[in-house]
Structure formats: structure tokens, C-alpha cells
Amino acid sequence: MDISSSATDIMELNERIQRESAFVETINSEVGKVIIGQKYMLERLLLGVLSNGHILLEGVPGLAKTLAIKTLSTAVRADFSRIQFTPDLLPADLIGTMIYNMHQNKFEVKKGPVFSNFILADEINRAPGKVQSALLQAMQEREVTIGDTTFKLEEPFLVMATQNPIEQEGTYPLPEAQLDRFMLKVVISYPEFDDEQLIMRMNVNQKFGKVDPVLDKDTLLRARKVVREVYMDEKIERYILDIVFATRTPEKYNLQSLKPLINYGGSPRASINLALASKAYAFIKRRGYVIPEDVRAVCNDVMRHRIGVTYEAEAENITSEDIVSQILNAVEVP
């Protein structure tokens, strides 16, 4: 393919994606009727929805994590389930179980709350490992087995799990291998002063906006296919791989100082999800091609839970975010 025809194809793709991504602004304005500030969180939720990836949200209570996904599910016209994870929760409470029907003298399947489009797994680290595993199996395989029957989960299927960073007593932290199943780990901060004033005023006066459904599931599923068509040059692919490989062998990127700080680096899922999230970010910005700034914008959210830090790093108060920042500063930008 010559350069001129390639440039023409990218221009056509760019125009098509500008048309297909028109709903992004509509969704943002609808969700913005209820969620004040927190644009970063909403943008990351959209990234997960568009790239078919699950999200782990970490933040103190009261930052509208629950309200955000519930509002988004209203705007997308999709089913929503909220599951409060507690130490006494059982896998059957999540996925469902077999119930004996006395009238028909047989067992019937009673589906659990996981059979929905948008799942909020509230405080996922409060439930024991077997419950976490039941959810993570549904996330990975997109199917649930009850008795001897396997059910496919309806698309779109997005899990947004939350965990509270300040109260760790009586919790069951997610193992690293299970954390890797989440496409993004998003750390939520407090709202700005003016935003919180508006939040306070809306709540005191009970004046909340009404969110209207502006997107159907078919349009969303079509948008997911278009996201994967966003053009990514081979130089960008190599840039992504350089970032991920720098977490595994930092000495090859003149980052010898990171070697004693990293216990393990990003898995191949890191490369895949960084590429997908970059394409989704370009789509949200209504662009048909990925630029290095797209990769850098989503890098922390994709990588922060995929880098294991050593005891030495913890002793020096060095986090995985600090390591990612050093890597982004060292790896050559195409």
C-alpha cells in the first residue's frame, strides 16, 4: 500500500470515528446532570465500557462511585445490579443456584445478580476468595455455570468493583493474579472546592437532574467494534511494548535504579489492555488514530496494579505509580 492511499484510508477512518463517537458528548452531558466533577472517573468508566474491560475503583467513601455507574447504566439503557460484598457472602448469592420446585418436582435455576449489564461489586475485598473467584470467572469467561448448565452473560457486561483504601480490618485483599483481570485500576480523589459546593447545594435542596437514556445497547456494541478499528501505527505498538518491557527488565532501558524496586512487571495482559485503552481514549477524543499522548494518558490506570513493588520500595515509600512515571520519562517517545 503506498503512502497516499494509506493517508486517505486514515482520513476516511477519522471521519467515520468522528461520526460514530458523537454520542460521547451526549452521554457526558446526561451523566453530568447528576455527577458533579469526577470527569476523570467518568472518562475511565467510558473507556471500560468501550473497550470491554472491567474497572477497579479505589477511593474513600462518598465519592459517588456507586452513583456514577448507576447513572451511566441509565444513560446507556442497560440493566444494573449492585452487589454489596460482605464476609458472609456465598458464590450462590452472586451467580445463582438450583431451587427445588415442589409443584413440578424438579430443580430449577434461579439466576443471581451477576446476570446484568452493569455490575457494581461494592467493596469487593470484604468477601472471601471463593466469592471473588466466582465473580472473576464471570468477568473472564463471560459465562456462569449453575448445576450442569452453562449460561452466557449478555453483552455489554461491565464489572466495576470498588475497594476502600482506609479500612483494611476484616478484608480479603485481591490476589495479584486476580487484580490482573481488571483492565483499569482507577484511584479516585476528592472533588474540587467549587464542585463540592455545587454537590452540597444539590443535595441540601434535593435538586437532582433527571438522566434520560441516550444510548441503546446495540449502538454501544457497534461502537466497541469501531474502537478496535482505530489506527495504531507500529511505532506506537513498539512504544507500548517498551513501556511494559521496562517493568520487567528496567536495566535494558537505563533504569538500573528500578531493578531492586520491582518484584514483577506487567504481564501480556498489560500490553493488550494498554493498546485497547489507548484506542478507546482516541475514540473518546473523536480521533481515528492513536498518538503517544493517548498511551501516556491511560498508562497509570492500566499499569498501577500490574507492577509488584518490593519491600525495599515500600520502605522508601515508592509506589507503582512512581515507577510508571520514571519509565514514561525514560522510554523514548515515537
Task: Walk me through what this model shows.
The chain is of the alpha/beta class and 334 residues long. It folds into two domains: 3-217, P-loop containing nucleotide triphosphate hydrolases (Rossmann fold, 3-Layer(aba) Sandwich), CATH 3.40.50; 231-330, Helicase, Ruva Protein, domain 3. The protein is 47% helix and 15% strand. It contains 14 helices and eleven strands. The two termini are 22 Å apart.
Describe what is shown at a glance:
The protein has 2 domains: about 5-215, 3-Layer(aba) Sandwich (Rossmann fold), CATH 3.40.50; about 230-330, Magnesium chelatase subunit I, C-Terminal domain (Helicase, Ruva Protein, domain 3, Orthogonal Bundle).
The radius of gyration computed from the alpha-carbon positions, rounded to a whole number of angstroms, is 21 Å
- What is the percentage of strand-forming residues? 5-15%
The end-to-end span amounts to: 22 Å
Main pleated sheet: 5 strands, parallel
Low-confidence stretches: 1-5
Secondary-structure-based class equals alpha/beta
Q: What is the CATH topology classification name of the largest domain?
A: Rossmann fold
Characteristics:
15% strand; five-stranded parallel beta sheet; globular; Rossmann fold; 2 domains; alpha/beta; disordered N terminus; Helicase, Ruva Protein, domain 3
